[in-house]
Design brief:
- By secondary structure, the chain is an alpha+beta fold.
- 22% of the residues lie in helices and 33% in strands.
- It is globular.
- The two termini are 31 Å apart.
- The relative contact order is 0.13.
- About 17% of the residues have low confidence.
């Protein structure tokens, strides 16, 4: 991907990652002394700001505000380290849970602003009134996607220490307003479970085909130099998840498998369980992980994933080889 805009040589190195991790741990300790509240007040927003917006645009903005609020809540939860908030995928957010946050700090200010905007937008919907948003992705947005309904994405996959080569197929079976859904096959064998992901590329970990997955790692509109973090889950659901961070080291248009994509390349670092067992967290022993991920910034479609770890459950190479177009 030489055509992509690359980060400078001072990019997110392992030593920089360790320094950032130390800062995060220190912040978590300080957070333990912070006041937690069930009454984070919204910052007032004027519904008239959105008076000229159509219902579809208002619904899209509600989606965006809730997604951003979920990301803020996850960031606070990760630093506090207490699994206070359980968040799922897409735009469905348990809004009252977002109030159980500390009232000091920039995250609470962001949450107050987002909640104020959310309430203003909801007032606009109620006053119109606007019909419920459709489940299906709008036709105009579908037309701008790099993949179409029925397309089959074919990946070369090498898993574990053996490096045995497999063919992974992912056929796009649904285009929803906030999700893509794929039917998954490995070496021609179709899995019962599908793969659902948001438009940033984060899958639903709780009901996925048996593939490595990640939670809240990818963000909308990834920018050069942006730092991201989330969870990394093994293909085997019984295995504990790891923690992963990364930095966007290159962005730009690129043709992959004959299709144009708006690519973000992310360098990954993290810790995963040292091996299989009954451990429920990294306190039972961990090992390092590093790798790289490339995704389309418009659709969240994965183009490349390579993770290296002494734990074979987190060792994987996957790259998009071709796209078999849907029958016309």
């Amino acid at each position: 991907m030489a055509a992509l805009r690359a980060q400078s040589p001072t990019m997110f190195s392992a030593s920089a990652f360790q320094h950032r991790l130390a800062v995060v741990l220190a912040a978590a300790l300080l957070a333990g002394c912070a006041t937690r509240s069930a009454n984070v007040r919204p910052r007032s927003a004027d519904p008239a700001t959105y008076a000229g917006w159509g219902c579809e645009r208002v619904h899209d903005e509600i989606d965006r505000v809730q997604q951003r609020a979920a990301d803020v809540a996850y960031a606070v939860d990760s630093r506090a380290g207490n699994n206070m908030i359980a968040l799922g995928l897409g735009v469905t957010v348990f809004w009252p849970a977002l109030l159980a946050m500390r009232t000091d700090g920039i995250e609470a200010e962001q949450l107050a602003e987002l909640k104020g905007r959310y309430e203003a937008l909801r007032q606009v919907v109620q006053q119109r009134p606007c019909a419920p948003p459709p489940e299906a992705m709008a036709a105009q947005r579908q037309a701008g996607m790099p993949v179409a309904l029925g397309d089959r994405l074919v990946y070369e996959q090498r898993s574990g220490a053996s490096g045995t080569v497999h063919e992974l197929g992912m056929r796009l079976s649904a285009l929803r307003r906030d999700q893509l859904e794929f039917r998954v096959d490995l070496d021609g064998k179709l899995f019962d479970a599908s793969w659902q992901q948001d438009l940033s590329g984060n899958p639903v970990l709780e009901s996925r085909a048996p593939l490595i997955g990640w939670r809240r790692l990818l963000k909308p509109e990834l920018a050069l130099g942006q730092v991201v973090y989330g969870e990394l889950a093994a293909a085997h659901e019984t295995q504990p998840s790891g923690r992963v961070r990364g930095q966007v080291v290159a962005t730009g248009p690129q043709t992959v498998a004959g299709r144009p994509f708006d690519v973000a390349v992310i360098e990954l670092f993290g810790e995963v369980p040292s091996g299989r067992g009954d451990a429920t967290d990294l306190g039972q022993g961990s090992t390092r992980l590093d790798g790289v991920m490339a995704v389309d910034r418009h659709s969240g479609v994965l183009l490349r994933l390579e993770v290296r770890s002494a734990n074979a459950d987190f060792a994987l190479r996957r790259r998009l080889l071709r796209i078999e177009a849907a029958p016309r």
